[in-house]
Protein backbone atom coordinates (compact mmCIF):
# COMPACT_ATOMS: atom_id res chain seq x y z
CA UNK A 1 0.00 0.00 0.00
CA UNK A 2 1.29 3.49 -0.63
CA UNK A 3 2.51 5.16 2.50
CA UNK A 4 2.65 8.93 2.13
CA UNK A 5 4.52 11.27 4.44
CA UNK A 6 6.17 8.35 6.15
CA UNK A 7 9.89 7.91 6.63
CA UNK A 8 10.51 4.64 4.75
CA UNK A 9 12.81 3.57 7.58
CA UNK A 10 9.66 3.51 9.69
CA UNK A 11 7.44 1.84 7.10
CA UNK A 12 5.26 -1.20 7.69
CA UNK A 13 7.82 -3.48 6.06
CA UNK A 14 10.70 -2.19 8.16
CA UNK A 15 8.61 -2.42 11.33
CA UNK A 16 7.63 -6.01 10.53
CA UNK A 17 11.30 -6.82 9.91
CA UNK A 18 12.10 -5.49 13.37
CA UNK A 19 9.27 -7.49 14.93
CA UNK A 20 7.24 -4.39 15.83
CA UNK A 21 3.44 -4.02 15.71
CA UNK A 22 2.09 -3.38 12.21
CA UNK A 23 -1.36 -2.42 10.88
CA UNK A 24 -1.22 -5.15 8.21
CA UNK A 25 1.18 -7.76 6.84
CA UNK A 26 3.57 -6.16 4.34
CA UNK A 27 4.15 -7.95 1.04
CA UNK A 28 6.66 -7.90 -1.82
CA UNK A 29 7.85 -10.55 -4.25
CA UNK A 30 11.29 -11.73 -5.24
CA UNK A 31 11.68 -11.00 -8.97
CA UNK A 32 8.61 -8.75 -8.89
CA UNK A 33 10.38 -6.65 -11.53
CA UNK A 34 11.03 -8.69 -14.61
CA UNK A 35 9.69 -10.75 -17.41
CA UNK A 36 6.20 -11.31 -15.98
CA UNK A 37 5.51 -7.63 -16.75
CA UNK A 38 4.83 -6.48 -20.34
CA UNK A 39 6.09 -2.99 -19.42
CA UNK A 40 9.40 -4.59 -18.36
CA UNK A 41 9.78 -6.52 -21.60
CA UNK A 42 9.11 -3.30 -23.47
CA UNK A 43 11.79 -1.16 -21.80
CA UNK A 44 14.32 -4.01 -21.97
CA UNK A 45 13.96 -4.42 -25.75
CA UNK A 46 17.43 -4.30 -27.29
CA UNK A 47 19.18 -3.56 -23.96
CA UNK A 48 21.39 -6.23 -22.40
CA UNK A 49 20.71 -7.28 -18.80
CA UNK A 50 24.02 -6.04 -17.38
CA UNK A 51 23.75 -2.76 -19.27
CA UNK A 52 20.22 -2.20 -17.98
CA UNK A 53 21.48 -2.66 -14.40
CA UNK A 54 24.02 0.15 -14.84
CA UNK A 55 21.66 2.75 -16.33
CA UNK A 56 19.97 4.77 -13.56
CA UNK A 57 17.06 5.76 -15.83
CA UNK A 58 16.27 2.10 -16.59
CA UNK A 59 16.96 0.86 -13.05
CA UNK A 60 14.54 3.47 -11.69
CA UNK A 61 11.81 2.73 -14.21
CA UNK A 62 12.05 -1.07 -13.87
CA UNK A 63 12.21 -0.97 -10.06
CA UNK A 64 9.10 1.26 -9.95
CA UNK A 65 7.00 -0.84 -12.36
CA UNK A 66 5.79 -3.49 -9.88
CA UNK A 67 5.26 -0.87 -7.15
CA UNK A 68 2.90 1.08 -9.42
CA UNK A 69 1.13 -1.99 -10.72
CA UNK A 70 0.82 -4.28 -7.69
CA UNK A 71 0.88 -1.82 -4.74
CA UNK A 72 3.50 -3.90 -2.97
CA UNK A 73 4.97 -2.60 0.29
CA UNK A 74 8.56 -2.44 -0.93
CA UNK A 75 10.60 -2.00 -4.06
CA UNK A 76 13.53 -4.34 -4.67
CA UNK A 77 16.45 -2.61 -6.33
CA UNK A 78 16.68 -3.75 -9.94
CA UNK A 79 20.11 -5.27 -10.38
CA UNK A 80 21.68 -8.71 -10.28
CA UNK A 81 23.94 -10.55 -7.86
CA UNK A 82 26.75 -10.52 -10.45
CA UNK A 83 26.70 -6.74 -11.01
CA UNK A 84 29.36 -6.05 -8.32
CA UNK A 85 31.53 -8.82 -9.79
CA UNK A 86 31.33 -7.22 -13.22
CA UNK A 87 32.07 -3.86 -11.56
CA UNK A 88 35.39 -5.16 -10.19
CA UNK A 89 36.34 -6.45 -13.63
CA UNK A 90 35.18 -10.09 -13.80
CA UNK A 91 34.50 -10.94 -17.44
CA UNK A 92 30.93 -12.27 -17.36
CA UNK A 93 27.60 -12.06 -19.09
CA UNK A 94 24.01 -12.80 -18.13
CA UNK A 95 22.64 -15.12 -20.78
CA UNK A 96 18.87 -15.09 -21.22
CA UNK A 97 17.26 -18.30 -20.01
CA UNK A 98 20.59 -19.51 -18.58
CA UNK A 99 21.91 -17.02 -16.02
CA UNK A 100 25.38 -15.64 -15.29
CA UNK A 101 28.25 -17.11 -17.35
CA UNK A 102 31.87 -16.38 -16.34
CA UNK A 103 34.56 -16.36 -19.06
CA UNK A 104 37.41 -17.59 -16.83
CA UNK A 105 36.35 -19.57 -13.76
CA UNK A 106 38.24 -19.00 -10.49
CA UNK A 107 39.94 -22.20 -9.32
CA UNK A 108 43.51 -21.28 -8.36
CA UNK A 109 45.34 -18.77 -6.18
CA UNK A 110 46.39 -16.89 -9.33
CA UNK A 111 42.74 -16.65 -10.38
CA UNK A 112 41.81 -15.20 -6.98
CA UNK A 113 44.63 -12.67 -7.22
CA UNK A 114 42.80 -11.23 -10.25
CA UNK A 115 39.68 -10.49 -8.16
CA UNK A 116 40.01 -7.04 -6.56
CA UNK A 117 38.00 -5.56 -3.70
CA UNK A 118 34.97 -3.38 -4.47
CA UNK A 119 35.28 0.31 -3.65
CA UNK A 120 32.27 2.63 -3.92
CA UNK A 121 33.92 4.61 -6.74
CA UNK A 122 33.47 1.56 -9.01
CA UNK A 123 29.65 1.86 -8.73
CA UNK A 124 28.68 5.57 -8.72
CA UNK A 125 25.66 4.64 -10.88
CA UNK A 126 24.30 2.43 -8.07
CA UNK A 127 24.34 5.38 -5.66
CA UNK A 128 22.67 7.53 -8.30
CA UNK A 129 19.97 4.92 -9.01
CA UNK A 130 19.19 4.49 -5.30
CA UNK A 131 18.91 8.26 -4.84
CA UNK A 132 16.58 8.64 -7.84
CA UNK A 133 14.49 5.77 -6.54
CA UNK A 134 14.16 6.89 -2.95
CA UNK A 135 13.07 10.32 -4.20
CA UNK A 136 10.35 8.71 -6.30
CA UNK A 137 9.30 6.08 -3.73
CA UNK A 138 8.43 8.48 -0.91
CA UNK A 139 7.29 6.40 2.06
CA UNK A 140 7.68 3.05 0.29
CA UNK A 141 10.94 1.41 1.34
CA UNK A 142 13.62 0.29 -1.11
CA UNK A 143 15.28 -3.06 -0.40
CA UNK A 144 18.91 -3.20 -1.47
CA UNK A 145 20.49 -6.59 -2.07
CA UNK A 146 23.59 -8.59 -2.82
CA UNK A 147 24.52 -12.20 -3.46
CA UNK A 148 26.08 -14.05 -0.52
CA UNK A 149 29.67 -15.32 -0.75
CA UNK A 150 28.73 -18.99 -1.33
CA UNK A 151 26.31 -18.32 -4.19
CA UNK A 152 28.71 -15.84 -5.82
CA UNK A 153 31.59 -18.32 -5.38
CA UNK A 154 29.54 -21.05 -6.99
CA UNK A 155 29.07 -18.97 -10.17
CA UNK A 156 32.74 -17.96 -10.22
CA UNK A 157 34.13 -21.46 -9.57
CA UNK A 158 31.71 -23.36 -11.82
CA UNK A 159 31.82 -20.70 -14.54
CA UNK A 160 28.02 -20.58 -14.70
CA UNK A 161 24.86 -22.06 -13.21
CA UNK A 162 25.35 -25.50 -11.70
CA UNK A 163 23.08 -28.23 -10.41
CA UNK A 164 25.56 -30.16 -8.28
CA UNK A 165 28.23 -27.53 -7.51
CA UNK A 166 30.93 -30.18 -7.93
CA UNK A 167 33.82 -27.81 -8.67
CA UNK A 168 32.77 -25.56 -5.79
CA UNK A 169 32.70 -28.45 -3.32
CA UNK A 170 35.96 -29.83 -4.71
CA UNK A 171 37.65 -26.48 -4.01
CA UNK A 172 36.05 -26.17 -0.57
CA UNK A 173 37.38 -29.59 0.51
CA UNK A 174 40.53 -29.67 -1.64
CA UNK A 175 41.95 -26.29 -0.67
CA UNK A 176 40.05 -24.86 2.31
CA UNK A 177 42.53 -22.00 2.64
CA UNK A 178 41.94 -20.82 -0.94
CA UNK A 179 38.18 -21.32 -0.46
CA UNK A 180 38.21 -19.17 2.66
CA UNK A 181 40.29 -16.46 1.00
CA UNK A 182 37.95 -16.43 -2.01
CA UNK A 183 34.88 -16.16 0.22
CA UNK A 184 36.49 -13.46 2.36
CA UNK A 185 37.07 -11.42 -0.80
CA UNK A 186 33.48 -12.05 -1.91
CA UNK A 187 32.19 -11.04 1.53
CA UNK A 188 34.04 -7.73 1.11
CA UNK A 189 32.52 -7.22 -2.36
CA UNK A 190 29.04 -8.24 -1.26
CA UNK A 191 29.18 -6.18 1.94
CA UNK A 192 30.46 -3.10 0.12
CA UNK A 193 27.64 -3.42 -2.44
CA UNK A 194 25.05 -3.62 0.36
CA UNK A 195 26.63 -0.67 2.13
CA UNK A 196 26.60 1.54 -0.96
CA UNK A 197 22.85 0.93 -1.32
CA UNK A 198 22.10 1.46 2.37
CA UNK A 199 24.17 4.65 2.54
CA UNK A 200 22.39 6.01 -0.54
CA UNK A 201 18.99 5.46 1.07
CA UNK A 202 17.85 1.82 0.91
CA UNK A 203 15.73 1.05 4.01
CA UNK A 204 16.44 -2.69 4.26
CA UNK A 205 18.82 -5.16 2.64
CA UNK A 206 18.51 -8.76 1.52
CA UNK A 207 21.44 -11.12 1.20
CA UNK A 208 20.61 -13.86 -1.33
CA UNK A 209 22.34 -17.19 -0.75
CA UNK A 210 20.16 -18.88 -3.34
CA UNK A 211 22.11 -22.12 -3.79
CA UNK A 212 23.46 -22.72 -0.27
CA UNK A 213 20.68 -25.25 0.38
CA UNK A 214 22.96 -27.68 -1.45
CA UNK A 215 25.17 -27.91 1.64
CA UNK A 216 24.69 -29.91 4.82
CA UNK A 217 24.61 -27.90 8.05
CA UNK A 218 28.14 -28.87 9.14
CA UNK A 219 29.62 -27.59 5.86
CA UNK A 220 27.50 -24.45 6.05
CA UNK A 221 28.83 -23.68 9.53
CA UNK A 222 32.44 -24.37 8.59
CA UNK A 223 32.72 -22.98 5.07
CA UNK A 224 29.97 -20.39 4.65
CA UNK A 225 28.50 -18.84 7.78
CA UNK A 226 31.59 -16.80 8.81
CA UNK A 227 31.66 -15.17 5.37
CA UNK A 228 27.93 -14.44 5.22
CA UNK A 229 28.25 -12.92 8.70
CA UNK A 230 31.03 -10.69 7.42
CA UNK A 231 28.93 -9.53 4.43
CA UNK A 232 25.93 -8.70 6.64
CA UNK A 233 28.15 -6.94 9.19
CA UNK A 234 29.07 -4.38 6.52
CA UNK A 235 25.75 -2.57 7.09
CA UNK A 236 25.94 -2.73 10.88
CA UNK A 237 25.27 0.69 12.37
CA UNK A 238 23.23 1.93 9.39
CA UNK A 239 19.92 0.95 10.98
CA UNK A 240 18.68 -1.18 8.08
CA UNK A 241 17.08 -4.57 8.82
CA UNK A 242 18.85 -7.50 7.21
CA UNK A 243 16.93 -10.25 5.39
CA UNK A 244 18.76 -13.49 4.55
CA UNK A 245 17.30 -15.94 2.03
CA UNK A 246 18.21 -19.18 0.30
CA UNK A 247 16.42 -21.98 -1.55
CA UNK A 248 16.09 -25.43 0.03
CA UNK A 249 17.52 -24.17 3.31
CA UNK A 250 15.13 -25.94 5.69
CA UNK A 251 18.08 -27.48 7.57
CA UNK A 252 19.98 -24.17 7.68
CA UNK A 253 17.36 -21.66 8.81
CA UNK A 254 18.72 -21.18 12.33
CA UNK A 255 22.31 -21.01 11.17
CA UNK A 256 21.38 -18.42 8.54
CA UNK A 257 19.67 -16.35 11.20
CA UNK A 258 22.78 -16.63 13.37
CA UNK A 259 24.83 -15.22 10.51
CA UNK A 260 23.39 -11.87 11.56
CA UNK A 261 19.93 -11.65 9.99
CA UNK A 262 16.90 -9.88 11.44
CA UNK A 263 14.60 -11.67 9.00
CA UNK A 264 15.00 -15.25 7.80
CA UNK A 265 13.65 -15.94 4.31
CA UNK A 266 11.81 -19.24 4.02
CA UNK A 267 11.31 -21.09 0.75
CA UNK A 268 8.09 -22.93 -0.11
CA UNK A 269 9.33 -26.35 1.03
CA UNK A 270 9.10 -25.50 4.73
CA UNK A 271 5.87 -24.73 6.53
CA UNK A 272 6.05 -21.25 8.10
CA UNK A 273 5.09 -22.61 11.54
CA UNK A 274 7.88 -25.19 11.28
CA UNK A 275 10.31 -22.43 10.25
CA UNK A 276 9.31 -20.44 13.34
CA UNK A 277 9.88 -23.46 15.58
CA UNK A 278 13.21 -24.29 13.95
CA UNK A 279 14.47 -20.76 14.51
CA UNK A 280 13.15 -20.60 18.08
CA UNK A 281 10.84 -17.67 17.28
CA UNK A 282 13.86 -15.36 17.36
CA UNK A 283 13.53 -13.86 13.91
CA UNK A 284 10.92 -12.25 11.75
CA UNK A 285 10.16 -14.53 8.80
CA UNK A 286 9.74 -13.79 5.12
CA UNK A 287 7.85 -16.04 2.74
CA UNK A 288 6.67 -18.39 1.51
CA UNK A 289 4.04 -18.96 -1.17
CA UNK A 290 5.15 -21.44 -3.84
CA UNK A 291 5.55 -19.35 -7.03
CA UNK A 292 4.02 -22.21 -9.02
CA UNK A 293 0.75 -21.86 -7.05
CA UNK A 294 0.21 -18.49 -8.80
CA UNK A 295 -0.85 -20.72 -11.72
CA UNK A 296 -3.53 -22.52 -9.65
CA UNK A 297 -7.24 -21.55 -9.63
CA UNK A 298 -8.01 -18.57 -7.35
CA UNK A 299 -9.94 -20.41 -4.65
CA UNK A 300 -7.23 -22.86 -3.51
CA UNK A 301 -4.59 -20.17 -4.07
CA UNK A 302 -6.48 -17.77 -1.83
CA UNK A 303 -6.81 -20.45 0.86
CA UNK A 304 -3.04 -20.95 0.76
CA UNK A 305 -2.41 -17.18 0.98
CA UNK A 306 -4.73 -16.96 4.01
CA UNK A 307 -2.96 -19.90 5.65
CA UNK A 308 0.45 -18.27 5.22
CA UNK A 309 -0.80 -14.92 6.58
CA UNK A 310 -2.24 -16.72 9.64
CA UNK A 311 1.01 -18.61 10.28
CA UNK A 312 2.94 -15.37 9.81
CA UNK A 313 0.97 -13.73 12.59
CA UNK A 314 2.34 -16.34 14.99
CA UNK A 315 5.91 -15.32 14.10
CA UNK A 316 7.92 -12.49 15.65
CA UNK A 317 7.21 -10.54 12.48
CA UNK A 318 6.15 -11.52 8.97
CA UNK A 319 6.83 -10.20 5.50
CA UNK A 320 4.69 -12.00 2.93
CA UNK A 321 6.65 -13.10 -0.14
CA UNK A 322 7.06 -16.07 -2.44
CA UNK A 323 9.22 -19.05 -1.57
CA UNK A 324 11.39 -18.09 -4.57
CA UNK A 325 11.13 -15.65 -7.48
CA UNK A 326 8.14 -14.87 -9.71
CA UNK A 327 8.21 -17.22 -12.72
CA UNK A 328 8.41 -15.33 -16.04
CA UNK A 329 5.09 -16.68 -17.40
CA UNK A 330 3.07 -15.68 -14.30
CA UNK A 331 -0.11 -13.68 -14.95
CA UNK A 332 0.65 -10.30 -13.33
CA UNK A 333 -3.02 -9.78 -12.42
CA UNK A 334 -2.82 -12.76 -10.08
CA UNK A 335 0.10 -11.11 -8.29
CA UNK A 336 -1.90 -7.90 -7.86
CA UNK A 337 -4.80 -9.91 -6.47
CA UNK A 338 -2.58 -11.74 -3.97
CA UNK A 339 -1.20 -8.41 -2.70
CA UNK A 340 -4.74 -7.09 -2.18
CA UNK A 341 -5.77 -10.29 -0.42
CA UNK A 342 -2.79 -10.19 1.97
CA UNK A 343 -3.60 -6.59 2.88
CA UNK A 344 -7.30 -7.31 3.30
CA UNK A 345 -7.04 -10.41 5.43
CA UNK A 346 -4.20 -9.17 7.62
CA UNK A 347 -5.64 -5.73 8.46
CA UNK A 348 -5.79 -5.21 12.22
O1 LIG B 1 12.71 -8.04 -8.76
C1 LIG B 1 13.78 -8.48 -8.28
O2 LIG B 1 13.80 -9.48 -7.53
C2 LIG B 1 15.07 -7.67 -8.50
C3 LIG B 1 15.92 -8.10 -9.49
C4 LIG B 1 16.84 -9.29 -9.37
C5 LIG B 1 17.42 -9.86 -10.53
N1 LIG B 1 18.33 -10.79 -10.14
C6 LIG B 1 17.09 -9.46 -11.88
C7 LIG B 1 17.26 -10.44 -12.96
C8 LIG B 1 17.39 -9.95 -8.27
C9 LIG B 1 17.09 -9.75 -6.80
C10 LIG B 1 18.33 -10.89 -8.78
C11 LIG B 1 19.16 -11.74 -7.93
C12 LIG B 1 19.74 -12.96 -8.50
N2 LIG B 1 20.37 -13.13 -9.69
C13 LIG B 1 19.81 -14.17 -7.79
C14 LIG B 1 19.30 -14.39 -6.41
C15 LIG B 1 17.84 -14.56 -6.41
C16 LIG B 1 17.36 -15.91 -6.88
O3 LIG B 1 16.64 -15.95 -7.88
O4 LIG B 1 17.69 -16.90 -6.21
C17 LIG B 1 20.47 -15.10 -8.62
C18 LIG B 1 20.78 -16.54 -8.29
C19 LIG B 1 20.83 -14.42 -9.82
C20 LIG B 1 21.56 -14.94 -10.99
C21 LIG B 1 20.68 -14.89 -12.18
N3 LIG B 1 20.49 -13.75 -12.93
C22 LIG B 1 19.82 -15.89 -12.69
C23 LIG B 1 19.69 -17.29 -12.16
C24 LIG B 1 19.10 -15.31 -13.76
C25 LIG B 1 17.98 -15.94 -14.58
C26 LIG B 1 18.36 -16.34 -15.96
C27 LIG B 1 17.13 -16.38 -16.85
O5 LIG B 1 17.14 -15.67 -17.85
O6 LIG B 1 16.17 -17.08 -16.51
C28 LIG B 1 19.54 -13.99 -13.90
C29 LIG B 1 19.06 -12.99 -14.86
C30 LIG B 1 18.12 -12.00 -14.31
N4 LIG B 1 18.31 -11.31 -13.15
C31 LIG B 1 16.92 -11.57 -14.89
C32 LIG B 1 16.38 -10.58 -14.07
C33 LIG B 1 15.12 -9.79 -14.28
C34 LIG B 1 16.36 -12.10 -16.21
C35 LIG B 1 17.11 -11.48 -17.35
C36 LIG B 1 16.22 -10.70 -18.28
O7 LIG B 1 15.11 -10.26 -17.92
O8 LIG B 1 16.71 -10.46 -19.41
TrEMBL record:
<feature type="binding site">
    <location>
        <position position="80"/>
    </location>
    <ligand>
        <name>substrate</name>
    </ligand>
</feature>
<feature type="binding site">
    <location>
        <begin position="31"/>
        <end position="35"/>
    </location>
    <ligand>
        <name>substrate</name>
    </ligand>
</feature>
<comment type="subunit">
    <text>Homodimer.</text>
</comment>
<comment type="similarity">
    <text>Belongs to the uroporphyrinogen decarboxylase family.</text>
</comment>
<comment type="pathway">
    <text>Porphyrin-containing compound metabolism; protoporphyrin-IX biosynthesis; coproporphyrinogen-III from 5-aminolevulinate: step 4/4.</text>
</comment>
<keyword id="KW-0210">Decarboxylase</keyword>
<feature type="site" description="Transition state stabilizer">
    <location>
        <position position="80"/>
    </location>
</feature>
<protein>
    <recommendedName>
        <fullName>Uroporphyrinogen decarboxylase</fullName>
        <ecNumber>4.1.1.37</ecNumber>
    </recommendedName>
</protein>
<comment type="function">
    <text>Catalyzes the decarboxylation of four acetate groups of uroporphyrinogen-III to yield coproporphyrinogen-III.</text>
</comment>
<feature type="binding site">
    <location>
        <position position="210"/>
    </location>
    <ligand>
        <name>substrate</name>
    </ligand>
</feature>
<dbReference type="InterPro" id="IPR006361">
    <property type="entry name" value="Uroporphyrinogen_deCO2ase_HemE"/>
</dbReference>
<feature type="binding site">
    <location>
        <position position="324"/>
    </location>
    <ligand>
        <name>substrate</name>
    </ligand>
</feature>
<dbReference type="InterPro" id="IPR000257">
    <property type="entry name" value="Uroporphyrinogen_deCOase"/>
</dbReference>
<dbReference type="Pfam" id="PF01208">
    <property type="entry name" value="URO-D"/>
</dbReference>
<feature type="binding site">
    <location>
        <position position="155"/>
    </location>
    <ligand>
        <name>substrate</name>
    </ligand>
</feature>
<feature type="domain" description="Uroporphyrinogen decarboxylase (URO-D)">
    <location>
        <begin position="26"/>
        <end position="35"/>
    </location>
</feature>
<dbReference type="InterPro" id="IPR038071">
    <property type="entry name" value="UROD/MetE-like_sf"/>
</dbReference>
<feature type="domain" description="Uroporphyrinogen decarboxylase (URO-D)">
    <location>
        <begin position="143"/>
        <end position="159"/>
    </location>
</feature>
<keyword id="KW-0627">Porphyrin biosynthesis</keyword>
<keyword id="KW-0963">Cytoplasm</keyword>
<keyword id="KW-0456">Lyase</keyword>
